[in-house]
Amino acid sequence: MATDKAFQDGKKPTLFEEYLRIMNQSKTKEIREDLISEGAAMDEPSEASSELSFWKDHQRLIDRKTKRVMPTTIVIEKYRSLFEAATKALVTAASRGRIRMVKALLDKVDHDPESVTTALLDAITRSPMEREFIWYLTGRTTSTPDSDTMGWLIVTGHLDIALYLARKYPGLATTKDGANECPLEDLAVMKFHFHSGARLNFWENFIYKCIPLCLVNTSYDNSKHTKTTRALQQFKMSLWNLATKPAPFIKRIGESKLRHKCSLKLANLALIKNKSRMTTPENLEYLLTSGIVLDATSRGISEIVNLCIVHFPELMWDERFIRKLMKEAVKGRHVELFLLVRAHYIPQLTPDYWMKFGLMKAVTKWSPRCESPDVSGAAFLMQRELQWFKVLEDSSIPCIKSLKWQEEKRTYWENIVEKRCNLVKEAGVWMKDTSKSCSLVVTLIITIAFTAIFTVPGGNNDSTGNPIFLKNGSFMVFAVADAFALFSSVTATLMFLAILTSRYAIEDFLLSLPRKMILGLTFLFLSLAFMLVAFSSALTVILSEKWKWIYIPIILLATLPLILFAILNLPLYVQMVESTYRPRLYCSVMFGK
User: CA-to-CA distance for 129 and 123, rounded, in angstroms?
Assistant: First the structure.
């Protein structure tokens, strides 16, 4: 037979050949002959074909084989080799993401509980995208999974599954893996698993806040639920999939929100477990030596830092730790973390002037970490740098403004100007290019608005010179809108002209230039809106005599450019307004004052 030939050649037999060899040695003649006859009717797999592909091509034989073997192989000691082969098949099928094969083996062949946990780890590492399959194996686990399972679940983004296992097996929340890292340490370096580390634009953040988690939480572990609960859950899943099918990005944002919620709960659970199994001094030593808080701070994960401070407020009593924490927040320009640490800061426990010196030195340094994707344009990146410098300078002692570095013999302001000379040039180019583009559009609006007022719709009365439709309500709307369009466009032109003729000094990027840009864009938007209103009202005056309903499609068509302009430019506009008039760095009282 094929299996004997394989042994003679010194090659490792396939799973099916091993299975036939075991059955040939069995005393159960009926099963042996039946399986051999079925195997003879099949084409023998080639050497290149894997065990799993062979099983996939002969799925029906797998089902018949497991059904017939169960009554006679229930005693594991009698068929130990078959048991090992089934375990090997389970792990192999799990690593390939074959849920049907795994279900057949788990339901019809006895297996070691540890084989399920091994299959779960292989499924996570080799088929991380098979979410439903990983959930199925997670629900079938009856023993504590391998220590590496939690780490791989966190890395692959299955935070809801990791949270489920941590609640089912409490020891997993604090167990160290093969790399000697616990789940909390893994979470501290995965910033995209938290809302503070997610790079969401204006509209994505708006959708993020509107999505209810009750629709997104599509857990496949519903074995303990009643039929009504399972039916309701299936209905919610179907409703969610149907609603997000035309817009897949909404589903992606919803899954991100679920992941952020689960990662926050998992971190909180890990800290609670640490509090229950260790004393407060041991926990403080662990957090200070493991670098969890500092790693989270350097990556801007404010959620983990907040949880650690809430559970262990004694962390803020360590002078060296506070210095490192504040420096990391300033170096990474993490506003939320800076405000969080400042809110828990105890100035009486730390020499205040040394803290300020260190922060001033950190804010003058420039690194790629300072370039945040949340800031649009070099001009507003320069504005943010100046805001950081101003906040730390105003909160420092008065003499610090004139102090010089011992190493370079320059003041802090001279250092920040020198190290950001390239950024100032880029900011100036961005301001000029934006102003030139907007000035061109505004000039066209001025021309159209000025011309339209002398060529009124319907013409003028030859005897009096007054417009024919002077008493028409739509004509008055046209006249007023056209006048506002002209005045707004002229004002916008003056604002952009002021930007183009500016000196572009570094301090101008703090308030002067951003305010002029905001005013210019505001009047540009108003002039566009008034121009469309004037055009729509003029069309209504001309066509309303024949079609009374013509104003409806005209209004709908006129709103499309306004909506498109708002979608494309509103995020930048809102960010500019918030950065200039309501910066988050100024939201609370400065420490030390």
Answer: 9
Q: How far is CA 503 from CA 323, 448, 512, in A?
A: 38, 32, 11
Label residue 466 exposed, middle or buried (CB < 10 Å: 0-12, 13-18, 19+): exposed
Instruction: Kindly list the domain boundaries of the chain, sorted by start residue.
Output: 2-143, 427-586
What distances in angstroms separate CA 352 from CA 338, 347, 365, 400, 573, one per listed residue?
16, 6, 21, 12, 38
SS3 27: coil
Distance CA(121)–CA(124), nearest Å, equals 5
Q: How far apart are CA 374 and CA 583, in angstroms?
A: 13
pLDDT in tens, 286-318: 888 888 999 999 888 999 999 999 999 888 888
Give the 3-state secondary structure of residue 467. strand
Alpha-carbon distance of 306 to 301, in angstroms, equals 9
In whole angstroms, how far apart are CA 576 and each of 162, 279, 379, 517?
40, 48, 10, 9
How far apart CA 170 and CA 149 sit, in angstroms, is 14
Contact 304, 188 (CB under 8 A): yes
Q: Give tens-digit pLDDT for 86-133.
A: 556 666 666 666 666 666 666 655 556 777 787 788 778 877 787 877
